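QA checklist item 7 of 12: single-chain prediction sanity check.
[x] sequence parsed
[x] length recorded as 470
[x] structure emitted
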Amino acid sequence: MTETTESTAPVNGNGHQLSLSTDAARNLATTTKTAPQMQEITSRWLLKLLPWVQTSGGVYRVNRRLTYTLGDGRITFSTTGSEVRVVPAELSELPMLRGYDDIEVLEALAYRFAQREVEPGEEIVREDEPVDQLVLIAHGRVGKEAQGAYGDTQNLGVLADGDYLGEQLLSGGGQWEFSAKAKTATTVLTLSREDFQQLLDRSPSLREHLEAWQAASDRASNDYGEAAIDMSSGHSGEPVLPGTFVDYELSPREYELSVAQTVLRVHSRVSDLYNQPMNQLDQQLRLTVEALRERQEDELVNNREFGLLHNADFSQRVRTRTGPPTPDDMDDLLAKVWKEPAFFLAHPQTIAAFGRECSKRGLYPQSSEVNGHRVPAWRGVPIFPCNKIPVSGRRTSSVLLMRTGQENQGVVGLHQTGIPDEYQPSLSVRFMNINEKAVVSYLVSAYYSVAVLVPDALAVLEDVEIGRED
């Protein structure tokens, strides 16, 4: 069977070709080409917007004033069937138990927690009643409310998995300053005052730890937990002025530059013979560097050691009120970073979800122009897309808001310029070798990190639903 091809050249009545076909003509033509394209490349707004600080020694130390308040992390639980138990060591995430490591006492304390299932709308604690229990939220969402000065109900935020209520029980109690109601079906673990007191009476080490914590918290401090600077104001005459000094943290945090590396291999025959009209090594290197910069931005967001999502202070984390990202939620973020907020950072789908919520309320936020680009904004603060912010399997994500710059005590990027074989700032391309197969190898390295100078420079809106359409 003879294969025939359709010709695009004109033919006469006898079927003979009258001119050169386009297929044959292309053999003599020079095609117009693009440089190699790469779908992974994004705008990388975080890398563009962060102010970068030269880290000459490879380490960046953040010195702060001495802080007496202790961190309040999230509690982790273990589940066996329908039974939920708190992991004993996780109890040290409570502010008053931070640093306490007597595992036997922590296990005894964890054993005394009782599991309770709470229905939506059911009250867990009531405002102005004595704090008689410590409540750990294992699963679900709990809303905090308080009576306002004019009789209305004030929304104080939402608690969810890993949060807790009533930590004052460990230091003697007090009264509830708010009411807490379950917004969804919720599983909580509760520790009664009687059970805690029984354990406290039998544990000298626990008593000593709590007494030391109370002594530290009684020291004069400002609203941020920093050691107070004594001073006098509004006086007259010649009173004795207080003496003071500014104390510093004895073990400040240090950020080491991280690295992303790869070995680029190019056969010498390719780089020798096939460099017209585009240099093969340049194109290989260009795309490799683009991929490294994408990984760099991903690390700045997600790295567990220094990434922004994992280094936001727990007091700077906000839960959504209803699930989707609403204007109220964005305002809550702005209340956390109210000193010169620079920009929001969110996944593109989260920005779309926020747009839908604004449309439902008849709000049409104005955009902001940044470096010639029009981007959405809220309250004048631009919202930039970043696909490195993860979206969970439940279609939830996060929104970051930050203040930037050393002069503003904000968030700064860390790098080191002037490194050997530098190709771009803080990125080097170093020749390695040519192997016996004539393959040339180049080591491509990018050095970077990010630092949060003070906790209130960064806030995160967590568990943001991005798929709700109603």
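[x] summary fact logged: The longest helix spans residues 280-302.
[ ] second reviewer sign-off
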